[in-house]
């Protein structure tokens, strides 16, 4: 069994604000340690329960956060930026299943550090389905026929996953109090939970179907201000919907929609506020 593990940072237990997830702030090195520990719990358990190959994709910010020297020696790590498919780089139809670790709720929703790729995004839609990073990544997995077996993160990420993916196993490592505070499990208890849930998820793999994306999906991104929408709409093939901050793109498949999202959000970040 070949397993794909995408690891974000905002959904890791104990990490509750930007000081833990921003490489220039004081708690970041602690965040790296805890992030690597949580990832190892999943890897160890997966190897003990039938997986013979595990690829881990560092999926936060510049995507070079996981401490490779402390990672399980038999795992392989995709690290660094730029990646053509960002949080799902390397995912293809050779995997039996995928797991998302350290995930958070989508933009504009209650949840610790909730957002969708950048803080200038209010909403993503694929056709009429509102999604965040979790949903978009699950759609890419589904394009390849790969089911998302487990999502670990805060309670709101778990709720989002359960609404999108019938049968998915969720591991709630912290409960949201506000966007920058939460009730967190200790690392020891988090480890116990992740090992238990990983084993359950692998045993339940036959009961989880891939989240199959629509053909010719329509991607719509609502930005926080008009300047961001203007920048994003410079990408060929996009339409800035009149009277809104929403940019629309008609894609040939979910892979094109995903890369369009990456380009549009990168362009949007060029907006200044002075």
Automatic annotation (TrEMBL):
Alphabetical list of SUPFAM superfamilies matching this protein: Dipeptide transport protein
Pfam families documented for this protein: Peptidase_M55 (PF04951)
Chain positions recorded as Zn(2+) 2 binding sites: 8, 60, 104, 133
Catalytic residues identified in the record: 115
Alphabetical UniProt keywords: Aminopeptidase, Hydrolase, Metal-binding, Protease, Zinc
Binding site residues for Zn(2+) 1: 8, 10
InterPro entries hit by this protein: DppA_N, Peptidase_M55, Peptidase_M55_sf
Endpoints of the signal sequence: none
GO molecular function: aminopeptidase activity; metal ion binding
Name recorded for this polypeptide: Aminopeptidase
Gene source species: Exobacillus caeni
